[in-house]
Amino acid sequence: MKLAQRIGHITQGGTDGWEIYYRTRDMIAAGERVLTLTIGEHDIGTDPAILKAMYDSASAGNTGYAFGPGNQDLRQEIAARVQARTGVPTGWDNVVITPGGQAALFAIHMALLDQGDRALYCDPYYATYPGTIRATGAEAAVVPTRSAEDFLPQEATIRALAQGAKTLLINTPNNPTGVIYPRATLEGIRRAVEAEDLWLISDEVYDTQIWEGEHLSPRALPGMTERTIVVGSMSKSHAMTGSRLGWIVAPTEVAEAVTTLTTNTTYGVPAFIQDAALFALRQGPGFEEKIAAPFRRRREIAMRALQGSNAIRVIPASGAMYVMLDIRATGLSGNDFANRLLDAERIAVMPGESFGAASAGHVRVALTIADDLFEEAIGRLAAFAERATG
């Protein structure tokens, strides 16, 4: 007996890029002290008030099937939030609730792509992007970016690769780089997708973590509302990673297609989790700012610690819970730097190579441990890089 070929197609025989994370986990299990800056997980739990709302809803009996596109009250709340932030008219029927942002990405690509289609995504990328595309049977085609251009995708590059493509996936604020796409970049993307007749899928799960400049959703650009699908999530904005609640905002035909798919896959998100998400969203922007505040502080700690370094160049980290460091001056690859740092200093970071070829020679640092521990880690990392360069 054999497995379906699609499973091998998802990874194409490669690794998932998380070897450092697995190695770190084993070291910690063995009792070693490791300062872990690998994954985008908050160092606080979900707020007790949100957990109480979840408990109260479940205790009231909201534990049955919840198939379909989601509770209308929650969809309306998300629609109103999106409209207030972007100025784009958005109705509850444009919103579908999904079990997290990853499920939203999978559902969108399944709804838009057929076997053999071509789908574009930008490098560097969140680790699941190519596999998510390949899971549909489509070809995942990478749009390379350059460190010297702050990893911003260029219009000409997109257009040169768009022959036969159907979709383009972008992520702003960006994981792994922390870069926010400025208006000029988004305008170039708009021109490219219009000229090549592409659907644009915009992953905006970090939209509440803005440190410099502003976040502009491409859905708000002229002519883009009907060709853009936005992914959102409670994971980063409300520290609800394990609750698995995300959404898409899309034209109604796409929302209906995704609803058909979820009815035959996930069967919806539990009602008590939806009720907790509704409660959380109604706490307003102040609550979201409180969740984001530690990452703002730690980003400043990193910028101070690395200022003037001869060994490290910091990619402008305008948002999200990461900083991307160019360590090519050390002469090491991202993989070698991360492994040697773990061996020598017991500090774990993700190699840039885990996120694609464009970020080779870089490492990603997650801003996800307490301020004092983060200051210790980033200082020791900087000293390690200087020694390696010297």
TrEMBL record:
<dbReference type="GO" id="GO:0004069">
    <property type="term" value="F:L-aspartate:2-oxoglutarate aminotransferase activity"/>
</dbReference>
<dbReference type="GO" id="GO:0006520">
    <property type="term" value="P:amino acid metabolic process"/>
</dbReference>
<dbReference type="Pfam" id="PF00155">
    <property type="entry name" value="Aminotran_1_2"/>
</dbReference>
<keyword id="KW-0032">Aminotransferase</keyword>
<keyword id="KW-0808">Transferase</keyword>
<dbReference type="GO" id="GO:0030170">
    <property type="term" value="F:pyridoxal phosphate binding"/>
</dbReference>
<dbReference type="InterPro" id="IPR015424">
    <property type="entry name" value="PyrdxlP-dep_Trfase"/>
</dbReference>
<dbReference type="InterPro" id="IPR004839">
    <property type="entry name" value="Aminotransferase_I/II_large"/>
</dbReference>
<keyword id="KW-0663">Pyridoxal phosphate</keyword>
<feature type="domain" description="Aminotransferase class I/classII large">
    <location>
        <begin position="34"/>
        <end position="381"/>
    </location>
</feature>
<comment type="similarity">
    <text>Belongs to the class-I pyridoxal-phosphate-dependent aminotransferase family.</text>
</comment>
<dbReference type="InterPro" id="IPR004838">
    <property type="entry name" value="NHTrfase_class1_PyrdxlP-BS"/>
</dbReference>
<dbReference type="InterPro" id="IPR050596">
    <property type="entry name" value="AspAT/PAT-like"/>
</dbReference>
<dbReference type="InterPro" id="IPR015421">
    <property type="entry name" value="PyrdxlP-dep_Trfase_major"/>
</dbReference>
<protein>
    <recommendedName>
        <fullName>Aminotransferase</fullName>
        <ecNumber>2.6.1.-</ecNumber>
    </recommendedName>
</protein>
